[in-house]
# Entry
Amino acid sequence: MEEAKKGKVINLTNINSAPAKDGSGKIFYQFSIVFEDGVSGIMWTTSQDGSPWKVGEEKEYTLEHDSVKNINKIKAVRTGGGGGGYGAKYKKNEKLDCASYSLSYAKDLAVDKVIPKEEILPRAEEFFAWLVAKGGVE
# Structure
């Protein structure tokens, strides 16, 4: 992947005959995009109109060449959280994930009658402490 570039969009064309779905059922539309400096490629978005891309706007993007398909993949550079499309990153609450996993595992032991119900919370706390110590959870 190359570093971020900036360019004015001069052409944006939906090139899907049918949109694609990812594993979660989210629908994606494929667009051909051309910038004022001659850079061109394809990009995917969940919006039928090509948002967040618009003809005439200057956008920050990254370009990655797929040598197998001989195409340029273009992705918007995100400057904040949210928004859908490519690149949105969210910081996970690792402690909450570990606590949830620990409680679920302890509950499974009680359901399988490996431990009594009264031991669910103490065991979950033990598992949580172990996960935090081993995994370096923040």
In short: The first helix runs from residue 94 to 111.
